[in-house]
Write a structure and sequence with these properties.
The longest helix is centred in the first third of the chain and has 16 residues. By secondary structure, the protein is α/β, with parallel strands linked by helices. It is 36% helix and 20% strand. It has nine helices and ten strands. The protein has two domains: 132 residues, D-Maltodextrin-Binding Protein, domain 2, CATH 3.40.190; 100 residues, 3-Layer(aba) Sandwich (D-Maltodextrin-Binding Protein, domain 2).
Length: 249
């Protein structure tokens, strides 16, 4: 009798959690992910997508430590490639989007000066994502080094844990910040104007930010995970990513 009760409980749990997938998503995709999930649910209405946002480095560490993510959308290719090399991811990393870098301020500046604007004496704090864990932070450092202004602006850097936190810093605690261009598509940022509050960082100054997707072992042989993975590499998802300031392969 006890065995039947336990079996019934397990079956009930299976039904309860059926149709739920867990995905780890780089923070820079936070402005697009709701629309991506909504579009996916148009095709797969019975699948619940649980999203965890964070820096790619931290999400990778969590996956390595057994976090129950089934799919990983990284802000670069390095982290998913490392998971694949160590047999933690079961699919080879593919590019689902290419991110671009912008600098932004809630104040008005003359952005026609380009990246040399950062040397302005009125700018004392520059928000930047941690370059050790966040690909956009690494790209920002590369840009200022290639522009040959690294030594003059290094002391102004205020480090954030993720690209989304960098936006918060740029809005409140810093004079200007390096952000993902996709961040400019959030409702909060719609009031700010190009060339007055923000501008694109010259893409020649940094290595293109290829963002990679992999299925993690926890998601192997899961049809709903496979469906979301396929969706992210398809036409609909690419159009949404493009609408949110990304380039698409």
């Amino acid at each position: 009798m006890l065995k039947k009760i336990i079996l019934g409980s397990l079956l009930s749990s299976s039904v309860l959690f059926a149709g739920t997938i867990n995905i780890a998503v780089a923070a820079n995709v936070s402005y697009a992910i709701n629309e991506l999930v909504a579009e996916f649910n148009q095709i797969h209405p019975d699948t619940k997508v649980n999203v965890t946002l964070g820096s790619s480095g931290k999400l990778t560490a969590q996956i390595r430590n057994g976090a129950p993510y089934q799919l990983f959308m990284s802000a670069n290719m390095k982290y998913p490639q490392s998971l694949y090399d160590d047999n933690i991811a079961v699919t080879r990393p593919l590019v689902y989007a290419q991110g671009s870098l912008a600098y932004f301020s809630s104040k008005k500046y003359d952005f026609s000066k380009g990246i040399n604007l950062l040397e302005n004496s009125k700018i004392s704090k520059i928000a930047i994502a941690n370059p050790k864990t966040a690909p956009y932070g690494k790209a920002a450092v590369e840009a200022v080094k290639n522009a040959q202004i690294y030594n003059s602006v290094l002391g102004k850097f205020v480090y954030a844990e993720s690209i989304s936190q960098t936006v918060s810093y740029a809005l409140t605690a810093a004079d200007i910040g390096f952000i993902a261009k996709s961040s400019l598509f959030s409702p909060t940022m719609s009031q700010y104007n190009k060339n007055e509050n923000w501008a694109d960082v010259d893409p020649k100054l940094y290595t293109p930010i290829n963002q990679g997707i992999v299925v993690v072992k926890n998601g192997e042989k899961n049809n709903e995970v496979a469906s979301f993975y396929t969706f992210m590499l398809g036409k609909k998802a690419k159009q949404i990513m493009n609408d949110f300031g990304y380039l698409v392969p």
